[in-house]
From TrEMBL:
Organism encoding this protein: Leptospira noumeaensis
Annotated protein name in UniProt: DUF6242 domain-containing protein
Signal peptide extent: 1-20
InterPro entries found in the cross-reference section: DUF6242_C, Sialidase_sf
PROSITE patterns documented for this protein: PROKAR_LIPOPROTEIN
SUPFAM superfamilies for this protein: Sialidases
Keywords: Signal
Domain DUF6242: 59-188
Pfam families noted in UniProt: DUF6242_C
Length: 337
């Protein structure tokens, strides 16, 4: 680190001695940006995907189910569906998938990974609205409070799920097994929850609440009243995507103050971050993939198949997305290698 800092310092001195305080050419501008970029990445974050144009390949799922969510953890990808004989599938590489049958099938729609455990929640199963698995293959039902759970995340050693009904519209668990009801400050139909930079952020149509622990929540200023479908965090930024409204992306550096962003008017349902790149997928539209290095400016991309891409995750330097087309579903993957 000292050698790198010395390099940046000496390079900066060289730059200013060469061009003075006011750069006089495009070449000098480029050199300045290069040095600033090197300094900004001195934290050592892996940005292997940042300057990549992703090349997507269709993969065959274990079964052509309506896949709702996909998550990477413990060196494997896990996806869950709302139908089929094997509504869970696992892959070590995002290419070859193996199907599994949990004790309760066809109603689970979320996935999170933390503390060595995959966890999924259901909006309709009663009373076992939660299942957990150490490997994505063998699942155990868990009893929890019974609101209509819509979204799930993990952070700060805690699983947090949010709901669209009941007085207690959040539940938390330190282990994915034992769950406790929580009461956010507003009885909104919460649709999404994410975690980043030590903060949980939950979204409803026009509302935002934040919490450091999933227990105590604070209401924030209203945002655009549209259907927010997914939220992620990366490179110091929260990014949320929607399927309705004029500006279907919004970003925030702190989870509190949000800025709308203009993108294609698709039904964006999944967004993730990996090694310097945000990637979102949609159910419809001509170009059903979009990528961004900063969450602000987005580049549209054709999907290898024009089907309903529902969820996306990142692991092993690879983006993996699943579709919800029952009977015709697919998996697509793109490596940054």
């Amino acid at each position: 680190m000292r050698k790198f800092s010395l390099f940046v310092l000496l390079s900066s001195l060289f730059l200013f001695s060469a061009i003075g305080c006011e750069p006089k050419s495009d070449n000098n501008d480029s050199l300045a940006l290069l040095l600033l970029g090197a300094s900004a990445n001195s934290s050592g974050e892996n940005l292997a995907c940042q300057n990549k144009t992703l090349s997507w390949t269709i993969r065959t799922p274990a079964e052509a189910n309506s896949w709702q969510a996909v998550k990477y953890g413990d060196n494997r990808f896990v996806a869950i569906a709302t139908n089929g004989t094997t509504p869970v599938m696992v892959s070590s590489d995002g290419i070859t998938w193996t199907g599994h049958t949990p004790p309760i099938a066809t109603s689970y729609t979320t996935l999170a990974y933390g503390n060595g455990l995959f966890v999924t929640t259901s909006p309709s199963a009663t009373p076992e609205k939660v299942m957990s698995s150490p490997d994505g293959a063998t699942w155990t039902t868990r009893t929890s409070p019974t609101p209509i759970l819509q979204s799930l995340t993990f952070g700060n050693g805690t699983f947090v799920a949010v709901a669209s009904n009941s007085a207690d519209r959040a539940i938390t668990s330190p282990d994915g097994i034992n769950w406790t009801s929580r009461t956010p400050p507003a009885t909104e139909p919460w649709s999404q929850v994410g975690f980043g930079n030590g903060l949980f952020v939950a979204l409803a149509s026009a509302k935002v609440i934040t919490s450091p622990d999933g227990i105590t929540w604070t209401a924030r200023n209203d945002v655009q009243a549209i259907q927010w479908n997914s939220i992620t965090y990366g490179n110091g930024l929260f990014v949320a995507v929607a399927s309705t409204g004029t500006n279907r992306v919004m970003t925030s550096s702190d989870g509190i103050t949000w800025t709308p962003r203009s993108v294609a008017q698709n039904s964006w349902y999944g967004v993730t971050y990996g090694n310097g790149l945000f990637v979102a997928v949609s159910l419809d539209g001509t170009e059903r993939i979009m990528t961004s290095t900063d969450g602000i400016t987005w580049k549209a991309q054709l999907a290898p198949e024009q089907i309903a891409w529902k969820s996306i995750t990142f692991g092993k330097n690879t983006f993996v997305a699943v579709s919800s087309n029952n009977g015709a579903s697919r998996v697509m993957a793109a490596s940054c290698d």
